[in-house]
């Protein structure tokens, strides 16, 4: 009974503290937003970047034009921060999609990569940029190629014309690019089935994560991937145990 009495005394204090904290949090954004917007006019690019990082945490339709404008900032770090902010606001920022598509042509690869990542968050809303994302699958920078593949993987049927180009990345020299290409094909599912045979060499990939993921993609494609069953059966005699195990797992999915 004594423990219960103590709890009855403490509980109102805890609830009152929580209410004060909630009220404080509700009041903070107004001055934070106005202060951060003012900071965007700073001559110091680091301050502008930090301001965008702060603003990106607030869901506010009025901020979207601000982020779009900052995509044209003279400093690449600021442009990256603007792209990331728009990615975080994807649900309310479809108007930003064309500007992010333009950012795929930015001279800085880090900006192109950030724009591709942001477009991926828009998923089916970004179908208008499928061709532009497909174009940067051949980018000289591996991060751009990887992020473009992932973004295309979220576009469903609109990505169909680019599936063959995504599949070419399965041979990319960069591990991250190969892994992202595998994930993109997995997300596209059955419509990626025509490229199923190109996944099979990855069963021998030196990276076990990639070889296992390749088998998982075959499973994601479903019964339509049965066309590669003879090749999977041949892989059961592969000297590489990981390849054999993955082939068996893939066959069990068909």
How would you characterize the overall build of this protein?
The structure is a single chain. The protein has 254 residues and is mainly α. Helix content is 63%, strand content 0%. It has 13 helices and no strands. The protein has helices spanning 2-39, 45-55, 64-70, 76-88, 97-103, 109-122, 130-135, 142-152, 163-168, 175-188, 208-221, 229-235, 241-253. Helix 10 (175-188) runs parallel beside helix 11 (208-221). The N and C termini lie far apart (63 Å). Mean pLDDT is 88; it is low at 1-28.
Write down the overall geometry.
elongated
- CA-based gyration radius: 24 Å
Class from helix and strand fractions: mainly alpha
Describe the sheet with the most strands: none
Q: Catalogue the unreliable spans.
A: 1-28
Q: Distance between the terminal alpha carbons, to the nearest Å?
A: 63 Å
Number of strands: 0
Q: State the helical fraction.
A: 55-70%
User: What proportion strand?
Assistant: under 5%
- Assembly status: single chain
State the order of secondary-structure elements, H for helix, E for strand. Answer: HHHHHHHHHHHHH
Q: Roughly what is the average pLDDT, rounded to an integer?
A: 88
Number of helices: 13
Task: Give the helix/strand layout.
Blueprint: H1 2-39, H2 45-55, H3 64-70, H4 76-88, H5 97-103, H6 109-122, H7 130-135, H8 142-152, H9 163-168, H10 175-188, H11 208-221, H12 229-235, H13 241-253
Helix pairs in contact: 1-2, 2-4, 3-4, 4-6, 5-6, 6-8, 8-10, 10-11, 11-13, 12-13
